[in-house]
Amino acid sequence: GPACQRLAIALQRDDSISVDCDCGEWLPTASDSGAPIMHQPADVVTRLVATLHHQPHWRNLYAMALWRALSARLRLDVYRDGQHYRQEFRIGEPLAEATHVGPTRRTGLQLHAYPDQTIFSDLHVLSSNHLAERLQILAALHPGVRIAIHDERVFDYEIHFPAGLTDYVRTRIGIWEAAALELHGQHEDVAVSLVWQLRTGGGSAHVESFVNGEPSEEHGSHVDGFWRGVRLGLKDYCKSHGLGQPVLKRLRPKELDIPGHLVLAVSLQLPRYGSATRAILRDPRALEAVETLVRRWLPNQLGTPGSGKLLEAWLMGRER
């Protein structure tokens, strides 16, 4: 089905949560009535998230199943083929079959859930700021999506990054002194997107990394693959340009401390982690994909306006 262009999330004063999106045509229908099959709201939301991500992830299946298990009440409205359907659930069980509400001009899906307060006793402290921060990377990885957050207790907030990760990095570090380097590609079954903003005046490398839209605070294979690809790509550049040992020796340290800000995101099926908290990725597929793509891409970036010139200056030992 088509990818979502609009996603709205509302935190209500009564501690309920609403989700509204403009995609819903992909919901399966019952062959006899044409009504959407909505017995499993977890499946519906999983399909919604899969649409946003452009591919299914079993981690999202697990996460979205919690909507059903952890909601005291849940109402699901689907708008498709010019018709509006509704089904309600209590503690995960459907109260009745999906009903036909009437004709409609809109397309999409609405979820309104009341989290079970026997499980969540502190819903009043639910943070819209934290929610907005987590959704920023989702918007950055899908530039066409416009995400609105409405918190009746605090404020309204909209996230829209037309330039994707480039806009995301701007929000993190402000005005740039030089254009960033960007890479978007795929190797085998791993999709890779990165923005690398180099800077002058020294300093260290700052890295933000994500796996399937979720932050990986301790980084791991994808970041290791990036630095390996940088090292190999710079070595290839040196060899093709006849640069000798005085330049190559800058690539000897185990850690290349190139001043700048890197945002690296990978997407893959069933990623393997090094800890139960999923804070560190340990997946050779990600390492190989990022290393391969970066090594091929980087030599052509040196000397290009902005960060490409800064990287060339770093390599030659001419940092300003």
Describe this structure as you would to a colleague.
This protein has 320 residues and is an alpha+beta fold. Helices cover 30% and strands 27% of the residues. The protein has eight helices and 14 strands. It has helices at 41-53, 58-69, 128-141, 165-173, 221-240, 245-248, 284-297, 307-315; strands at residues 6-11, 17-21, 71-80, 83-90, 93-94, 99-103, 108-115, 146-151, 156-159, 181-187, 190-198, 205-211, 214-215, 260-267. The strands form two sheets. Strands 1, 2, 3, 4, 5, 6, 7, 8 and 9 form a nine-stranded mixed β-sheet that branches. A five-stranded mixed β-sheet has the order 10-11-14-12-13, sandwiched between helices. The N and C termini lie far apart (50 Å). Residues 36-65 have low confidence and may be disordered.
SSE diagram, text form:
Blueprint: E1 6-11, E2 17-21, H1 41-53, H2 58-69, E3 71-80, E4 83-90, E5 93-94, E6 99-103, E7 108-115, H3 128-141, E8 146-151, E9 156-159, H4 165-173, E10 181-187, E11 190-198, E12 205-211, E13 214-215, H5 221-240, H6 245-248, E14 260-267, H7 284-297, H8 307-315
Parallel strand pairs: 1-8, 12-14
Antiparallel strand pairs: 1-2, 2-7, 3-4, 3-7, 4-5, 4-6, 8-9, 10-11, 11-14, 12-13
Helix pairs in contact: 1-2, 3-4, 5-7
**Number of helical elements:** 8
Give the CA-CA distance, first to last residue: 50 Å
Principal-axes shape call: elongated
Low-confidence spans: pLDDT under 50, at least 5 residues? 36-65
Topology pattern, helix = H, strand = E: EEHHEEEEEHEEHEEEEHHEHH
Strand content: 25-35%
Sheet with the most strands, sense and barrel status:
9 strands, mixed
Q: Find the structural class using helix and strand composition.
A: alpha+beta
